[in-house]
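User:
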Amino acid sequence: MANKMADKKKNASQSEAATSKVRGRDKEQSQNVKAETRDREDRKEREIKESKPVKRESKQSSASQGRFRRLRNNRIVRFVREAYHELRYKVTWPTFQEARTMTIVVIALSAVISIILGIADLGLTRLFLLISGR
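Assistant: Predicted structure:
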C-alpha cells in the first residue's frame, strides 16, 4: 500500500515536471513569435521610411508659402477639404443595382402614399359637402 502511494506521488511529480516543461516550451515559442513579429514590424517601418520621397525645396518664396498655409488653414477651405476627403475615402457608396432598387422602392412607396392621401382627401371633401348641404 505504501509502495502504491509512493508510486502515485512519483508519477504525479513526473507529470508536473512534464507539464512545466511543456509550459516552458510554450512560453519560449510565444516569446519567439513575439520577437519575430516585432522584427517584421520594424522592417516594415524602415521600408516605409526609406520609400518615402525626399522633400525638395520649392521654387516659391517663403511669403507665398505662408499665404498658402493661411489659405489651407482657413475654416471654410478646411471644411471643404475635410468634406471632400470624407466623401472620397470614408463613405461606402451603394452599387448601381442597390441604388436602382432603393430608387424603385422610394417611387413605389410615394405612389402608394399619394393614392391613400388622395382617397382620404376625396372622402373628406364629400363628407364636408354632405354636411354643409351643397
